[in-house]
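Entry 14. Structure prediction run on the chain below.
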Amino acid sequence: MPFTPALHAEWIKIRSLRPLVGGLAAMLVVTAAFSALASADPDGTDPLFTAFFGVAFGQIAAIAFGTTAVSSEFRGGALRLTLAAVPDRRRWFAAKATAIALPVLATGLLTGLVTLLVGKAVLGADGPAWAEGLRGAVGCGLHLTLMALFAAGLTAVLRSGVATLSVLIPFLLIVSFVIGDMSSGVADLLPDRAGQVALHSTWDGSLGPWSGLAVAALWTAAALFAGAWSLHRRDA
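Output returned:
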């Protein structure tokens, strides 16, 4: 099967799974809600990060989306049926990754714009400038997309949504913060923290907004490559 029909088939799968549609909605609602709460009680040090504070929680919904989209293939022999229609495993995985990336990117950019508007409305004159805020909105969409794809690649390696979430959620909520407190230089290179540099007005580390996203993109590319390799080497 050529790439375009494979992509269409994967999009139908994603659209028909209610948890995935709910995950996209949760990504927007959670990010905007937590950002509004943070903006209502700002610390005054970084208005841009205050406005986009909720991304740290919204990325969990993005991770759950990428994880669920791939892990559904490893239940009930679904992957065997999929590979019967698309024997080229790399082509299928590329279609799957694209079908994950497009809706997350669209929702992520919308989330970034809504979050920016909410943050500016709550912060008022203390909110970020429009140019800086729009950069943050774009960074928000890209970061959420990269985290969803990172989770998708890891799920293809582990072949379990539970295992993937058991690794990533504690990492995001605990390990990343602990390492960040111990050594900011090392923490800057972690995928979640590197991607969020674009959400800060100023950053003391070595990465900038776009170089931070580039580091997160490298982590994502490595995870997707590992996932594709695992699918190619192991039985369905």
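The mean pLDDT is 89.
Filed with the rest of this week's runs.
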